[in-house]
Design goal:
Pfam families: ABC_tran (PF00005), BCA_ABC_TP_C (PF12399). This is ABC transporter ATP-binding protein. By secondary structure, the protein is an alpha/beta fold. It has a domain at 2-77 and 168-263: 3-Layer(aba) Sandwich (Rossmann fold). Helix content is 42%, strand content 22%. It contains eleven helices and ten strands. The strands form two sheets. It has a six-stranded mixed beta sheet, sandwiched between helices. It has a four-stranded antiparallel beta sheet with strand order 2-1-4-5, covered by helices on one side. Strand 4 (55-60) and strand 5 (63-64) form a beta hairpin. The relative contact order is 0.17. The structure holds adenosine-5'-triphosphate (ATP). Adenosine-5'-triphosphate binds next to strand 2 and helix 1.
Length: 264
């Protein structure tokens, strides 16, 4: 689905991602893990066009998308969620999903102000698209509740629905289980599996090792911006370089310490 070749970005003297060559296979779940500051979010920001790389290439289904802007990357079928929930709490669940759908519609501000035919058509389309996305994440029954009234898990589902509105083939989830209790985490894992069974390719950044080890087909491990290991959960959890990276993180209070220790 996606290949990155020699991908890198520097912020001044800081090489946040350095010479990463890796693949995200279609129809699979790839987890990107690593201690705090390893470059995981930056890697996502590069793939999704938020940052322009200072070196390397990004190839999506055989097409070079390295220099595309965020909305162009969305247009090619890549969507993402964010670490912190970016929903509008005072709006309804459906209105939030419709905002996700708006990314794809063509009506401009003038259309919206003048309530042109195109704007009305787009609104109807957004409503239908929003509802479809809510069905996919199991929230169709809560469409008219205010988003802020939902549980943490429900709000995460809204965030995922917003991303699904652009009909992505590749979905990037940035710390989807952050702030969730174990039961909510298990529910979220089931949802992600369902989405993949429906044909989606998923990449996720996550600190919660129970989710990563239980869900990922493949894991990429970043440390100081570099890819230090990749493979199945079993291969990665027993990799000496990974254990070393996690133990280092643990010694400095990083959350990743638990991965090498409790699962090795
Ligand atoms: N916009 C930016 N400007 C300058 N430095 C940045 C920027 N974005 C990220 N960095 C730096 O890049 C490095 C990697 O950060 P990044 O947030 O990608 O790590 P991470 O693995 O996602 O960490 P965490 O697990 O704590 O979220 C850090 O040193 C960070 O300070």
């Amino acid at each position: 689905m996606l290949d990155v070749q020699g991908l890198g970005i520097r912020f001044g003297g800081n090489h946040a991602v350095r010479d990463v060559t890796a693949s995200l296979p279609a129809g699979q779940i790839t987890a990107i893990i690593g201690p705090n500051g390893a470059g995981k979010s930056t890697f996502f920001n590069l793939i999704s066009g938020f940052y322009q790389p200072t070196s390397g290439r990004i190839v999506l289904e055989g097409q070079d998308i390295t220099r595309l802007k965020t909305h162009e990357v969305v247009g090619r079928g890549v969507a993402r969620t964010f670490q912190t929930t970016t929903i509008y709490r005072e709006l309804s669940v459906l209105e939030n999903a419709m905002i996700g759908h708006r990314v794809r519609t063509k009506a401009g501000l003038l259309d919206a102000l003048l309530r042109t035919g195109r704007e009305r058509q787009d609104e109807a389309g957004s409503r239908a698209g929003g509802l479809r996305a809510l069905e996919r994440v199991g929230l169709a029954g809560q469409a008219h509740l205010s988003a802020g009234a939902l549980s943490q898990e429900g709000q995460k589902r809204v965030g995922i629905a917003m991303a699904l509105c652009s009909d992505p083939r590749l979905l990037l989830l940035d710390e989807p289980a952050a702030g969730m209790n174990p039961e909510e985490t298990v529910n979220l894992m089931a949802l992600i599996r369902e989405l993949v069974a429906g044909g989606l390719t998923v990449a996720l950044v996550e600190h919660k090792m129970s989710l990563v080890m239980g869900l990922a087909d493949r894991i990429l491990v970043l440390h100081h911006g570099q890819l230090i290991a990749q493979g199945t959960p079993e291969e990665v959890r027993t990799d000496p370089a990974v254990i070393e990276a996690y133990l280092g993180g643990h010694a400095h209070g990083g959350q990743m310490g638990q991965a090498g220790v409790s699962h090795a």
